[in-house]
Amino acid sequence: MSTQTARPADALRDGDSAPQAPPSAAARKIGGVAGWVDDRTGAAKPVGYLMKKVFPDHWSFMLGEIAMYSMIICLVTGAFLTFWFVPSAGHTIYDGSYVPLRGVAMSEAYKSTLDISFDIKGGLIIRQIHHWAALMFVVALVVHMFRVFFTGAFRKPRELNWVIGSVLALLAIVEGFAGYSLPDDLLSGTGIRAMAGFVQTAPVVGSYLVYGIFGGPFPGEMIIPRLYSAHVLLIPAILIGLFTAHIGLVFVQKHTQFPGPGRTNENVVGYPVMPVYAAKAGGFFFIVFGVLALIAALVQINPVWAYGPYDPSPVTAGSQPDWYMGFADGALRLLPGWLEFTVFGFTVSMNIFPGALLLLPLVYVVLGAYPFVERFVTGDQREHHILDRPRNAPTRTGIGMAGITAYTVLLFASGNDIMAIKLGMSINDLTWFFRIALFVLPPIAFWVTKRICLSLQRRDRDLVLHGRESGTIIRTPDGRFFERHEAGLPEEQWVLVQHDAVAPLQLEAEVDEHGVARPAQRKDRVRAALSRFYFADAVNPVTPAELAAAHHHGHETEAIEGGDDTAQIESGETASRY
C-alpha cells in the first residue's frame, strides 16, 4: 500500500522551479549574434548599463527629444539634397521646367536649387522638410534651454552640459544662416551682402576679414563653395560631436527629475530605456517626422523661384532674416547713427558693429556663464538632481523673463519698416518707441515676474498651513462661523515644502582678530550685494514649528482636517533637508 500523499498534477514540490519554455529559433540566433559581438568588443556590460538607464517621465523632457529628432531629420534630408545641389557661383542659363525663368542668367547653385524643386522627384518636399526641420530644431533647442534655465537644471554637476548647449544654440544659428544663403536667390544674396557689410564694420580688421571670407571683394565666386563646406561638413561635424558629448553626459550623470514623493538626489524615478522608454522615444521620432512632413506638404516656405537669382538692384527693405536672427537685426536698427566716428584714420562704425556682430556671441557668452555667476552668488557647492519649481527661484525666473522680454522687443524692432508701412505710422516714432521699450520693459517684466513668484510661494505656504477652502460653513456652539478647510494630499504637500530655505549671505567683519584687513573684502562685498538682490525677499517653506503652531491655534485646529498626515510629511521632509 502506497504512503505517498496525493497532490495535484500541476503542484510544485519544495525546491521545484517553474518550467521554462525553450528559446525560439529567432531568440537563439539573436543570442548567438550578441555573444559573437560581445566576445570581440566586450559590449555586453556597457550596453546592459544603457538598457537599464532610468529616465523620468515628464512632458517637458520631450522638448530636448524634439530638438534631437529635428537635427536627425535635417541630416537625413540634407544628405538627399547634396546629391543634386551644385555649390558653385559659376554663371549658366536656366533651361529647366520652370517656364518664367527660362533663358535667365543665374548661378549654378540657383539653377540646381530650381532643378531640385521642379525636376527631381520628391525634391521640393524634401527641401521643405529640411527647412522646416531646421526651424523646428532651433525652436525646440531654445525652448529646451528655457526649461533647463527656469528649473535650475544647469546647476552642479551640469554646468558643462549647459555650456555645451549654449554653444550648440549659437552654432545652430550660424548653420541656419549658411544653409539659407546657399541657393543664391535674391533673398539669400541680400543676406550675404548684409553679412559682408556687417563684417566690414569690425574695427581695424573688417576689410581683411571680408577679403578672407569672400576670397576677394564682394561678391566673388568663392563664397558659395565655402558656405557649402561649412554647412555640410564643418558645422554639422561640430554639432554632432557636441550633441554626442551632451547625451553622453546625460547618461553619465543622473537625469534630473521634478520634486515629488520618493524622489531624492540619490535616485531617479521613471522608466528604463528598454523596453518602455525606447518604444516611446522611437514612436515619438516618427510623430515628429510625420508632423514636419505634414507641415512641409501644406505650408510653403522659401519659394526661391518667386525671388529670382541674386541681383543687387531689386533689393527691397522688406527682406527679413529668419526669426532667430531677428533680435540682432532689431538691435542694428535701434542703434543711433551718430555712433560712427574716426580714430587714427580708421572709421569705427559703432552704429552697426555692436548690433550686427557683437551682440550675437555676447548673448551666448553671458548665457553660458550664468551657472557660474549663480554659484558665486549663492555659494552652493552641492550636487542638484531635483529640479526647482520656477516660483521657488523668483529672482532667476525674473531674470529669465527680462531676457525674453528684451529679445521680444528687439525681434519686433527688426520689422519696424514693415510695421510702419502696414500700420501707417512713422518709422522714426516706432524706432524711438522700441529704444525706450528696450530699457523700460525688461525691468518691469523682472519685477512683475518676481512678484508673481513670491505671491505663489505665499499661496503654497497658506495651503500647507491652512489647507484649501472646502465651501462648507461651520457654526460653533458659541455662535462663531468659519469655513472648514481641508488639508491637501500628502504627496501634494510634499511638493510645497521640499525646497530649501534660503537667506542672503552675511558680510563678515572687514578685519580679522588682529586688526588686519582681509584681502578679499571687495569681492565679498560684491557677493553679499548680489546675494541680497537674489534672496532679500525670499519666502521660505513651512517649518515643523510653524505647522505645529498653526494646528494648535484655536480656530485653525477646528478648521484643518488631516493635520497629522501633514505634520508627518513636514517632519520627514525637514529631517531629510536638515
Explain what the structure shows.
The protein has 578 residues and is mainly alpha-helical. The radius of gyration is 31 Å and the shape is globular. The model is unreliable at 554-578 (pLDDT under 50). The protein has a three-stranded mixed sheet with strand order 7-8-9. The termini are far apart. Helix content is 61%, strand content 6%. It contains 21 helices and nine strands. The longest helix is centred in the last third of the chain and has 40 residues, at 427-466. Helix 3 (62-82) packs across helix 10 (273-298) and helix 12 (326-334) packs across helix 14.
Secondary structure layout:
Layout: H1 25-41, H2 44-52, E1 54-55, H3 62-82, E2 91-93, E3 105-107, H4 108-118, H5 123-151, H6 159-181, H7 186-200, H8 206-214, H9 223-252, E4 271-272, H10 273-298, H11 304-307, H12 326-334, E5 340-343, E6 346-349, H13 353-378, H14 394-413, H15 416-423, H16 427-466, E7 468-475, E8 481-486, H17 490-497, H18 521-535, H19 544-552, H20 554-559, E9 560-561, H21 563-577
Parallel strand pairs: 8-9
Antiparallel strand pairs: 1-4, 2-3, 5-6, 7-8
